[in-house]
Design a protein that fits this description.
Blueprint (H helix, E strand, L loop, with lengths): L8 H19 L4 E4 L4 H10 L8 E5 L16 E4 L3 H10 L4 H23 L2 E3 L4 H6 L20 H10 L4 H5 L12 H5 L3 H13 L4 H6 L5 H10 L11
Parallel strand pairs: 1-2, 1-4, 2-3
Length: about 240
């Protein structure tokens, strides 16, 4: 089946840059706080912001639990803040026999505490790096990596982010690496999900955007269709909470 998720990266970049400029002007805020994981999503957002704000108004925060591999992301001119979250997170490990999923959720929530505190200190907006694939699959931590003031790429599927990354000349090392949240050794998004973003994006697009029935999608040859949609539907509560009157 032909991939229906091709974008015009030049037009997409211009649309996002215009949105960011407009929003920061409306909010009368001139600085941004961005958690930089070293993955393609946060790197794309950083490269977009270089066309929106003065470099010295961009604050990238690297909040590692384990030491990270060196990447060749262009950080020239931006403010780089390195904060280890290991000591904070390890306080939870000693109190309880905690599994890696819970520990991963703690890591993402600790990171957001740091980002929002810095934003308060600097009168800046916290920028999120969520994409549409993660949102529809529920592959995020509530009040963790899903918390932000502004989301510039949440309308794009993961495979569309890659198209934009190549246009923005994000280093190939970043584009070609396996997507990971870096929550534990060997953790990858696709290994944890049990399917690839390439397949998931097309299935999600057909089901949610094109309103195709699951049976129709399965007939098109996507072998993990049932697993993908089941995960998505099981996690819809994340988009609906907190429940309220």
């Amino acid at each position: 089946m032909i991939n229906q998720l091709s974008i015009n990266p030049k037009q997409e970049k211009e649309k996002i840059v215009d949105f960011l400029k407009k929003t920061f002007k409306e909010q009368k805020i001139t600085k941004v706080i961005l958690g930089l994981s070293g993955g393609v999503d946060s790197t794309v957002v950083l490269y977009l912001f270089k066309e929106v704000l003065p470099l010295n108004n961009i604050f990238v925060v690297q909040m590692d639990y384990n030491s990270r591999k060196k990447t060749n992301i262009d950080l020239k001119g931006v403010n780089v803040v390195d904060i280890s979250i290991k000591n904070i997170v390890d306080q939870f490990k000693v109190k309880d026999s905690i599994n890696k999923i819970r520990l991963g959720n703690i890591m993402t929530r600790v990171r957001m505490i740091i980002l929002f505190d810095l934003a308060k200190q600097l009168n800046a907006m916290v920028c999120g790096t969520e994409n549409k694939s993660e949102k529809l699959l529920g592959y995020f931590t509530r009040f963790g990596d899903a918390a932000s003031d502004i989301e510039p790429i949440s309308h794009l599927y993961k495979t569309q982010i890659y198209q934009l990354a190549k246009y923005l000349k994000v280093p190939e090392q970043i584009v070609n690496q396996s997507p990971t949240a870096g929550l534990w050794d060997g953790q990858t998004d696709e290994g944890e999900l049990g399917f690839t973003y390439s397949e998931a994006d097309q299935v999600l697009h057909l089901y949610f955007d094109k309103k195709k029935k699951l049976e129709e999608i399965i007939k098109l040859g996507f072998k993990n269709s049932d697993k993908i949609i089941k995960r998505s539907l099981n996690n819809q509560f994340k988009l609906k909470t907190p429940y309220h009157l």
